[in-house]
Design brief:
Chain B: Residues 69-279 form the ABC transmembrane type-1 domain. Chain B: InterPro entries: MetI-like, MetI-like_sf. Chain B: It is found in: Cell membrane. The complex is a heterodimer of chains A (268) and B (289). Chain A contains 11 helices and no strands. Chain A has 268 residues and is mainly alpha-helical. Chain A has one domain: MetI-like (MetI-like fold), CATH 1.10.3720.10. The model of chain A has no long low-confidence stretch (mean pLDDT 85). Chain B has one domain (55-285): Orthogonal Bundle (MetI-like fold), CATH 1.10.3720.10. Chain B contains 14 helices and 2 strands. Chain B has a two-stranded antiparallel ribbon with strand order 1-2. Chain B is globular, with a radius of gyration of 24 Å. The model of chain B has no long low-confidence stretch (mean pLDDT 84). Classes of the chains: A mainly alpha (268), B mainly alpha (289).
Chain lengths: 268, 289
């Protein structure tokens, strides 16, 4: 077997990566109120508690509103950025793309604090709208990367053929390019949705008094009594994220297969 | 052709305008505001728009800032070292031993934990490492230890483990990409010229993988320095890092010029270190692929 030792190491590494996630369901179904071994018995009480929690429901509604809005906004902006960067040459391209990609490496605390200072000095009321503003910004680079892959694998002659057959620039985009990059768009939407749903720092600083799922979780972690319910919530969220990411990955690959390009792997 | 180029330029600029405008308004303008604030005076509940270097003088003279900045740098350096060293063999395995059809699957498996519930993952490390945590209660049940292990409790070690776990995929991807770019015939050439497997790795593979290693180090180091959640949850708020200090200055103490000066200083320090790191590894980065 090629790379036997390395394979074993990689599997152990994978186990390390998944260790916390694997513990979640164990404690979510454990009837003991303290998160420790030995386990007590099996219970679904924490899930029932989660279901009946009104403030959690409000946080969920807020989070979903924010995630849907910012994933759509980020993907729209990403389509522009990806199309511009893969198809056209223009002055200042490097620095411009650098600025758009900057949130990828800039610590979120800097993004959120600077945005907060500006919003407060402009007298803007903090709400879920201000969180959408921030989440769109941090999702935009990811959307741009995913969509650039999609646009990059486009064959330019297809577009030229459409022009030759009398389509205008806009109708060619709608009829030829858009269907081909559609899997990339879906993948970008799902990715941005997952990122926004899970994002804490920006929501923490910019949401004012409105709870989102992560800020609600953060506020509850201080109360030992609430922890089992948070474990149940975490289990649901992890399953949801994995499902969304799997669908995103499926569409990303289908998009690559559709345009006949080689799969280069990964989201980044 | 000249007019064609101009229309290309015009089209490109028109297309890039919306995302660029957004980034300028929501990112660049706020960053510049922070920069401007850092030179203003703090009045009671207001900011006095008068140029001063006083904030920076205070920041640089503040022993608490020195301690917290050094701690943040230390934690980030340890996390970077741990993630890159631990990730390299995995990236190597993915690039050299996994069949091409399975590579995407492996990468997907590695990135999944990164996207799921950051907050809960951090909290779970506290649960795993804590006084009555999974490791301690597990080892006690097995009868291996009498007293809980204390070196992993709510301290810098625990923060390093948690952050190394959180940023692991970030380190694997750039290294993997660099390894994928290596022309396999170079390795065969090395072997044909009589180098051992280990020497070929040391003299051919590793230098060619260095751009990926440098990228991985920076992409882990920079966000780790600014991490807010881990010190807040794992350190129990008692061992703050620079992000917690900025937040306290900006919101709890409501001293925005001072908080801004802190943020700008921290960003400058990180930028200088990153550039120095790139300069040190300059000779690897010029490698032709």
């Amino acid at each position: 077997m090629k790379g036997g030792g390395l394979r074993a190491y990689a599997l152990i590494y994978l186990l390390f990566l998944y260790a916390p996630i694997l513990l979640l369901p164990i404690f979510a179904f454990n009837s003991g109120t303290i998160i420790a071994f030995p386990l007590r018995g099996f219970t679904t009480e924490w899930f029932a508690q989660m279901w009946g929690n009104a403030s959690l429901r409000r946080a969920l509604t807020n989070s979903l509103t924010i995630a849907v809005s910012s994933s759509i906004l980020a993907t729209c902006l990403g389509v522009f950025a990806a199309r511009a960067s893969t198809r056209f040459a223009f002055p200042g391209k490097g620095p411009i793309m650098g600025l758009i990609m900057l949130p990828l490496v800039l610590p979120e605390i800097i993004v959120s604090i600077s945005l907060l200072v500006v919003l407060l000095s402009l007298g803007v009321q903090l709400s879920i709208l201000t969180v959408i503003l921030g989440h769109t910004l941090i999702c935009m680079p990811y959307a741009t990367v995913i969509l650039s892959t999609a646009f990059n694998s486009l064959d330019r002659s297809l577009e030229e053929a459409a022009y030759d057959l009398g389509e205008t620039r806009i109708s060619a985009f709608r009829l030829v390019i858009l269907p081909l990059v559609m899997p990339g768009i879906i993948s970008s939407l799902l990715m941005s949705f997952t990122i926004s749903l899970d994002e804490f720092i920006i929501a923490f600083f910019l949401a004012g008094n409105e709870p989102t799922l992560p800020t609600y979780i953060f506020s509850q972690l201080r109360f030992p009594k609430q922890i089992p319910m948070i474990m149940a919530l975490g289990t649901v969220l992890v399953l949801l994220s994995i499902a969304l990411l799997t669908i995103a990955e499926y569409f990303r690959r289908r998009g690559i297969a559709k345009t006949g390009a080689k799969d280069t792997g990964g989201f980044l | 052709m000249a007019s064609g180029n101009r229309s290309q330029t015009a089209q490109g600029l028109t297309l890039i305008a919306p995302p660029l405008g957004y980034a300028v308004l929501v990112l660049a303008a706020p960053l510049l505001t922070i920069l401007a604030y850092s030179f203003f005076k703090d009045g009671y509940l207001t900011v006095i728009r008068e140029f001063t270097l006083e904030n920076y003088r205070t920041v640089w003279a503040d022993p608490i800032f020195h301690r917290i900045m050094l701690r943040s740098l230390g934690v980030a350096a340890l996390v970077t070292l741990a993630t890159v060293v631990l990730a390299f063999p995995v990236a190597y395995f993915l690039s050299f031993a996994v069949s091409p059809q399975k590579k995407a699957m492996w990468l997907f498996l590695i990135t999944i934990p990164f996207w799921t519930s950051y907050l809960i993952r951090v909290f779970l490390w506290k649960v795993i490492l804590g006084y009555n945590g999974v490791i301690n209660s597990g080892l006690k049940t097995l009868g291996l230890i009498e007293q809980p292990l204390t070196f992993i409790l709510y301290n810098v070690n625990a923060m390093v483990i948690t952050l190394a776990h959180a940023y692991a995929p970030f380190a694997i991807l750039p290294i993997f990409i660099a390894l994928e770019k290596i022309d396999r015939s170079l390795l065969e050439a090395g072997r044909d010229l009589g180098e051992s497997r280990a020497m070929t790795f040391w003299r051919v593979t590793l230098p060619l993988a260095m751009p990926g290693v440098v990228a991985a180090a920076l992409i882990v180091f920079i966000p780790t320095i600014g991490d807010y959640v881990t010190p807040a949850l794992i350190g129990g708020g008692k061992i703050p890092m620079i992000a917690n200090m900025i937040q306290a200055q900006m919101l709890d103490l409501d001293n925005r010029p001072m908080g801004s000066a802190l943020a700008v200083t921290a960003m400058l320090i990180v930028a200088v270190i990153s550039l120095a790191f790139i300069a040190v590894n300059r000779r690897f980065l010029r490698v032709r692929q």
